[in-house]
Each structure stands twice: as structure tokens, then as C-alpha cells.
């Protein structure tokens, strides 16, 4: 799966998976957004709501700053909440693995922390943009 990297409005990078038709999938749960976009060209969230995990882009995925979690930790939390809410089902576990490359620990109900910076394999400070 390929990713496009976009910044949200507080300046955090989000890794958005895209399929072979360049259609965006949810960066939290990996559900297809059905042709909608989570983020527009490198900044503005779409305000769309993911049909899978119900995250609203630009709202639920940006509020991590308020409790001083970085976005990567916040996404980890959102993924766990989604799994807890629906039940750690096979398709959820498989979707996280296949789309986002995340292998959860079903036994202990834990979700690993994925750092977008690691996915980008570049130094975040090299990519700062004017706001
Ligand atoms: Zn989602």
C-alpha cells in the first residue's frame, strides 16, 4: 500500500493510504473513503466522516494537541477505540494489517504506535512549510 503524506492544520503529518486507483483510505482504520478525500492538497481537512471508524477529518483527528498527545499517539488511541467499539473482529484486524501495515495484539487488546515520521523516512524538520 502506498501512502501520501499530508499536514493537518496544526502541522502534524498524517499518512494517508491510497489504493491503486489513487483513492484515499482512512488513515485511522483503513476503510475506503469511496472517492472522498480525508485531506486536500497538503493541508485542509475535508470534514468528511469515515464510514468505518466515524472519525471526522479535521476534527477528531486533530484534537490530540489538547491533551498533549502527538498525532501518532492520538491515532493509536482512535484505532483502539474503533476496535473496542466494534469488537476486534477478523476483518478489522486484517484491514489494519493489510492497509496500514499495523499488526495489533488481539490477546492483550493493544495497538502499536506507528510513527508517521518513520513511514516518511525523512526528517520532519526538513519539510516545514509556511502556514
Ligand atoms: Zn476510519
Give an overview of the whole structure.
This protein is 24% helix and 9% strand. Mean pLDDT is 84; it is low at 123-131. The chain has one domain (2-120). The longest helix is centred in the middle third of the chain and has 16 residues, at 71-86. The chain is globular and about 40 Å long. The chain has helices at residues 71-86, 90-100, 116-120, and strands at 2-7, 13-18. A hairpin with a 5-residue loop joins strand 1 (2-7) and strand 2 (13-18). With 131 residues, the protein is α+β, with helices and mostly antiparallel strands. Bound molecules: zinc ion. Zinc ion binds next to loops. Zinc ion is lined by residues 26, 28-29, 31, 50, 52-53, 55.
What is the H/E order?
A: EEHHH
Overall pLDDT: 84
What is bound: which ligands?
A: zinc ion
Measured between the Cα atoms of the first and last residue, the distance is 29 Å
The total count of helices amounts to 3
Major sheet strand order: 1-2
Q: Stretches where pLDDT falls below 50 for ≥5 residues?
A: 123-131
Kindly give the count of domains. 1
Rg measurement, Å: 14 Å
- Beta content comes to 5-15%
- Shape designation: globular
Range of helix content: 10-25%
Amino acid at each position: 500500500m502506498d501512502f501520501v503524506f499530508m499536514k493537518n492544520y496544526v502541522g502534524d503529518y498524517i499518512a494517508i493510504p491510497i489504493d491503486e486507483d489513487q483513492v484515499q483510505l482512512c488513515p485511522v482504520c483503513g476503510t475506503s473513503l469511496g472517492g472522498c478525500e480525508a485531506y486536500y492538497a497538503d493541508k485542509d481537512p475535508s470534514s468528511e466522516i469515515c464510514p468505518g471508524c466515524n472519525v471526522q477529518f479535521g476534527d477528531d483527528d486533530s484534537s490530540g494537541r489538547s491533551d498533549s498527545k502527538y498525532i501518532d499517539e492520538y491515532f493509536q488511541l482512535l484505532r483502539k477505540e474503533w476496535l473496542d467499539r466494534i469488537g476486534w473482529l477478523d476483518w478489522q484486524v486484517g484491514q489494519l494489517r493489510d492497509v496500514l501495515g499495523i499488526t495489533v495484539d488481539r490477546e492483550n487488546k493493544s495497538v502499536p504506535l506507528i510513527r508517521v515520521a518513520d513511514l516518511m523516512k525523512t526528517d520532519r524538520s526538513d519539510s516545514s512549510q509556511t502556514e
